[in-house]
Specification:
The chain is of the alpha+beta class. Helix content is 23%, strand content 28%. It starts with 30 loop residues before the first strand and ends with a strand. It binds beta-D-glucopyranose (BGC).
Amino acid sequence: MWDTRARTSAWSPSAYWETGLLRSDDWTARWIGPAPSGSDSLASPSPLLRRAFRVRGPVRSARLYVTSLGLYEAYLNGQRVGDQLFTPGWTSYHHRLQYQTYDVTTLLQPGENAVAAVLGDGWYRGRLGFFGQRNLYGQRLALRAQLEIRYQDGRTERVVSDADWKTTPGPVLASDIYGGETYDARLEHRGWAAPRYDDSAWAPVAVLEPPSASLVAPVSPPVRRVRELHPVTIRPAPSGAMVFDLGQNFTGWARLRVRGGGAAGTSITLRYAEVLDRAGDLYTANLRAASQTDRYILKGEGEEVYEPHFTFHGFRYVAVTGLPGPPDSATITGIAVSSDLAQTGLLVTSDSLLNRLQQNIVWGQRSNFLDVPTDCPQRDERLGWTGDAQVFARTAAFNLDVAGFMAKWLADLASDQDKSGSVPWVIPNPLGGDSTRFAGTAGWADAAVIIPWTMYLTYGDRLLLERQYASMRAWVEYARRRAGPALIWKPGWQFGDWLALHTDDPSYPGATTGTDLIATAFLAHSADLLARTATVLGRTGDAGTYAALFHAVREAFHREFVSSTGRVGENTQTAYALALAFDLLPDSLTPIAADRLAQDVRARDTHLTTGFLGTPYLLHVLSRTGHAGLAFDLLTQRSYPSWLYPVTMGATTMWERWDGIRPDSSFQNPEMNSFNHYAFGAVGDWMYQTIGGIDLDPAAPGYRRSRIAPRPGAGLTSATASLETRYGTLASAWRLERARFVLDVTVPANTSAEVILWDARSDGVQEGGRPLTASAGIRAVRQRGNEVVVEVGSGSYSFTVARRP
Ligand code: BGC
């Protein structure tokens, strides 16, 4: 590469790619599993499967392609293949099943070899969903494995799953995503995955009919162990259990280390919870039917180390019973697991509570981006709730690289979408249902349109829009039909502004927004985004059709919900937030509506009342309509309800409800009280955009052109933000000094930026110690009200703005 001064860069390291198994006839491996038994629909020990084979000559390369019904762990010559967890991942299993490809060249050896796997119930046939069902996708576990060996001399050979494999039950006696795992170490088969193991007592496998799903290669990074956490305290609880506090709520499990001294058959129980009750015991009522309990039965041979295989828990505390000796800090290690998505965003401010909020948002995302964007990781749910993902998508794309993760999930969304265009509540959808049962609710199903558009803006990937287009359009058409000729969507079940403050709460009357208003607003918004999508894709006919639909719904909305005095609907914060954010008001009423919103916030002593759907837009509309100061005050409010209230109560993740733990330290209703739900963390994108100052220009998506417009407020004295874009690092760091505001900006090569200096006059701004006009890289400067707008090319800049005395 060459830069603007024709200097040549160093060579990048070489990269390579290879194609996977693209066609179904590339697979010769059969589907195999234990022979059917009377208990196929019940939890049963995880089967081990294996086969020995010979390697005849020096190997140039070898690949193992694997997938399964249920979860698998693969082994070659006794070694675990790869470090991926919960493979083959969770997809719309009826339609799409992922397979993984492993480079196993170095695991092979001359002569005798063995390939093996263990299977777990997982999402496929374990318990899933809040009705306690099992076997939602099928009853029988199965494996498909194909090892392709390429010898130095050009010969190729395949070792595939077929009737020659053997199977036997393994030491995982039971595993369940909600329930946890029971492992009896006495039942381990030493050397079972190694070549010279005697499997003559094992049963032959059964060959199964292939499932109908297409086999697809993953586009999302895999789930891995991402972090280890060590106990901050170890205390006996009144129940007698030893409670380990890992200091952070997260998703994963505990690694148990027993130093010896326990007799074979001793059972150690690990229970997991997010919070403690007042007495110091685990509080588990909010887990509902998910018992999140692991049991390990000692083999009694010195030090033993155990980690579960096919389950995960949402927790901060582990209560252990049955330990043969006194615990120490190595008895329990927290293993955090997550889709292994690269961190892209960074935001640090001068306010430690805001920094903790930002960390809580990221922990919420890490905890819930486990192959699928889930609502929560602890209770009997952990489903890909569309509404939650929709409200959080933009924030998610600041924190981590979610391009592949969301592309995978959106493919599942399209696969599970009903013929009518209706979108299920959860994706993947194991709940069944039809167009209106477990499906088709505003703000949730709009994930079909909002998320692809958000990903396009963030990553500039037009192909994603192309792939999702039919799905996006089908949803808008469905919603249009539900709204009928008057274009007001009234009938049917809606979640509405889920978990907004309740009208029956005497301190907050008037917080409930009509579901007809919300559904109609989202229809307008999705039609608008679909029109923009059609424009990007050059589908001019559709662009016109959906722009017209947007305007027609906007007018209907205006007629039905907006008074001539600018009152919107029930005069709730969410009604104003949606109407303003989705551009549903005539220009003349916009400032009036914004003032009414601001008045409501002030009348509630600077508190919000919004739920899942209103919350993401609240601060954006305030700061866009001249109420930035109020937006900052809301963000930094510490008393309930607010974003910082949970932080002051010691939260380490986002809570599902504004008052998961009430000011009197009692718990909210255990039926719905997760301490690890990211939805209210949707405020993160405002924090990046307004405090950090990093935003994109929708006309040049993917940050080809960015907007840097940080805004100090609420007494903050500095903030540093950066984002790894597809072009490189975009960064903005500011500090307030006594006499000046300093802003350092880095704009990646091949991009440009509009830098907006707030409260400035162009003759009072310098860059690099020189007047703006003298600075290289600056393309244009203009004054816009009390802002100075500077157009810059790539490079690093340091602006100083003289502050008014
Ligand atoms: C989930 C959500 C979800 C909601 C639907 C809850 O049980 O945890 O976060 O969006 O149901 O209203």
